[in-house]
Design brief:
single chain; Aldehyde Dehydrogenase, Chain A, domain 1; 16 helices; 496 residues
Amino acid sequence: MAVVAPAPAVSAFLEALPKRLLIGGEWKDAASGRTFDTINPATGERLATVAEAGPEDVDAAVTAARKAYDGPWRKLRPSERARLLWRLADAVNAHEEELAQLETLDNGKPVRESKIDIRGVAEHFRYHAGWCSKLQGTTIPVSLPGTYLNYTVREPVGVVGAIVPWNFPLLIATWKLAPALACGNTVVLKPAHETPLTALRLGELAIEVGFPPGVLNVIPGLGSTAGAALAAHPGVDKVAFTGSTEVGREIIRASAGNLKRVSLELGGKSPNIVFADADLPAAVKGAFNAIFFNQGQMCSAGSRLFVARSVYEEFLNQLSEQAGKIRQGPGLDPETQMGPLISAVQLKRVQGFIDTGRREGAVLRAGGERATGDLARGFFIQPTVFADAKDDMTVVRDEIFGPVVVAMPFEELDEVIARANATAYGLAAGVWTRDLKTAHRVAAGIRAGTLWVNCYNLIDPASPWGGYKESGYGRDMGDAALHEYTEIKNVLINLG
């Protein structure tokens, strides 16, 4: 296991302790004086100490965001907002190595994956910068007696509370920030308490490139305190959340006070379907990446693997062999292919699911154990493949959020579509086939927000992202995201 020292800029950022809250353009201690430690999941050691926001800090951040919304931010021309977003994108690119290393130290993922995330952050800001000057209304013919001009305009919602998870800390934050800011809203961002560092660094960059005070506020804290206060705050006009379905329900309940708008991107138990005519080497590679990328800590992870019976054993042999060869290690090691899980809590959760799978009769084909040796200090677990699972098993029904795939054979198309849909979730799905008719039939039959054909986990800023059923509602990315952060006003003028 290679020991790779972080870049000087990263070390300097970490050593500037404690990290403070960004409220109204100023860095402040928490009103309570409380702090928490963010932990390096590869070693279990403290990375940094961070101010812990509570309800009083949430209130201050919402007040600052409202002041900015009613003041300088609304007065900016669309082209000026766009330029700020472009400058922020340029700053992200300029600090790519620093941000990627911070993300890796805080989250655990291999730094090569973090670099992909950080480049995506810049591209999301650029994509939505282009929409600033294109939020158009329409003129509408009406059938009323007389002469009227009837038109619509899109206006920003107001103050947005963005609550984001720890699996793609800065990237998913940007899925909320970019469209919200492009549409003219101000934002209070609560990053996950496990991974607050890149959000705080982004706050510094936003100040450096000229965002007015209060437009972006960053308040790390616990979900049960800061997150709950933000979701319930009467000064927040809209909450954008990515996380678990359980917490999504809590946010809906908290939003009832002022009937604030809510968009939710929640859990998943995504089916990945391999037909007998598929390009098997490509499908094995796709299934491998679908579950082991980001340590399997993705709501879209291809965790339910359905393989045509005629190629089932061949496919499972290849997948299990590749899983056994994965090189695990700290994310800054360039040789690392898979990093640790985010925390001791998550490690215990994933181990519990693996133990349950064994008890319920799933056949372990690869992994299933905690990593040993030098890796035992961190939260590492082996990439795990279960075979011959049954649809009613816990590991098939419940979201594990770790590098655990459960494989099952199937016989024919209608059967596998029905089994794939037999879940409370509906975020994503994959299908591997050379037959265009099969691909279209599966795409039409699967109830999920995204369907990948002969690929998996490909996401673009222009493509909408969100789920069906208990995977949430509303959409991130693409022009669909603009509807989440704007209100439509209808204006009817009597010209008679």
